[in-house]
Fold this sequence. Notes:
Blueprint: E1 4-10, E2 21-24, E3 30-36, E4 46-52, E5 58-66, E6 69-73, E7 83-93, E8 96-99, E9 103-108, H1 123-151
Amino acid sequence: MLNAISRINIELLHKTLRKKIPVIQNDTGRKLECTVTDCKLTSEIKARIWAMKPSGKMVYNNCNIKGNVVTIDLTNQLLAEQGLVACQLEFIEAESSVSSYEFVLEVERDLSGFGPESENESTVLDEYFLKIQKILKLIKISKTYFMIVRSHL
């Protein structure tokens, strides 16, 4: 699988000047690796990206962490709109969170004109929804089991 990986360094303690990260609209083979240079990321930490597209639509997705490198999958929705996409990483451990300073994706237009309609996206909320569905299924099974046991008493 073809992957075009851009790399940047980010600091959580100091705001540094960053260049805009150029990307192409609708590319699904792009990733962004962000190396945290001033804090150690432990295995208990989760990373998520918040991104606001030019239209104001939002993306809130999970990211992968390996060592101090956070990998962001640049999804169709993250790259759906031409223009500047404001991004911020959120690091969560137990009850606390720390956010990175803002960085910007500069999304250049895809000349093919194809691609998805821009929408809000959240892999984080999708995961919670799947967990809730599993819990509701367990509740239904438990209720059925309870009714069977109760009928035999």
